[in-house]
Amino acid sequence: MSRSVLVTGGNRGIGLAIARELDAAGDAVAVTYRSGEPPEGLFGVRCDVTSAADVDAAFEKAEAEHGPVEVVVANAGITKDTLLAMMKEETFTDVIDTNLTGAYRVVKRATRGMLRMRRGRVVLVSSVVAMLGSAGQTNYAASKAGLIGFGRSLARELGSRGITVNIVAPGFVETDMTAELGAEYQEQIRKNIPLGRMASAQEVARVVRFLASDDAAYVTGAVIPVDGGLGMGH
């Protein structure tokens, strides 16, 4: 049966690949986007995850279109890379508010209906940086590491209600953002990846599709790396 799915930040990059993958699996997919246009063929709702009112309105629109949300993918995120010595406080808190507190807002709203249905899938998109760290990304790494503690605690809260919560931790992925990196820096990155290449967004999306499927009904509280071996199990 077609399920109602909401993917935040689903109009580009990894989020769009996830939305397309779940749509291809037969789900009814809604995506949120903060700027730009909604992707063709998917139901889009404008939403800034730093606003609880925006999040609530986005769910109301998605539920009116597809019914109660059964799968939520918290993917929306930003980077504001700066060395800590030069980082302004708002540069730190803006990233935390979007990446971590934004996920809290989205998942809290999603679980309202999931608890009534006694079923659901929650997938949080973290990063290999959460485990390895990265100079100039203390704000981003803290936000993505926070998702792991948040997700595992939530998995313990919701397991008895038939709701799974899992975390995907991508490494370097071929997106518009990584395409802007210099060729020399990209080559340096690849040398540190055992598989010797970056991931495609579709490779991350397929792991999310698995975690959202019946095949993963007994998987919860897991952190799944999709990083070509970069993190080596951290």
UniProtKB/TrEMBL annotation:
Its EC number is 1.1.1.100. It is an enzyme of class 1 (oxidoreductase). One of its GO terms (biological process) is monocarboxylic acid metabolic process. SMART domains: PKS_KR (SM00822). InterPro entries: KR_dom, NAD(P)-bd_dom_sf, Sc_DH/Rdtase_CS, SDR, SDR_fam. GO terms for molecular function: 3-oxoacyl-[acyl-carrier-protein] reductase (NADPH) activity. Residues 3-176 form the Ketoreductase domain. It holds the Pfam family adh_short_C2. Keywords: Oxidoreductase. Belongs to the short-chain dehydrogenases/reductases (SDR) family. This is 3-oxoacyl-[acyl-carrier protein] reductase. It comes from Thermocatellispora tengchongensis. The lineage of its organism: Bacteria, Bacillati, Actinomycetota, Actinomycetes, Streptosporangiales.
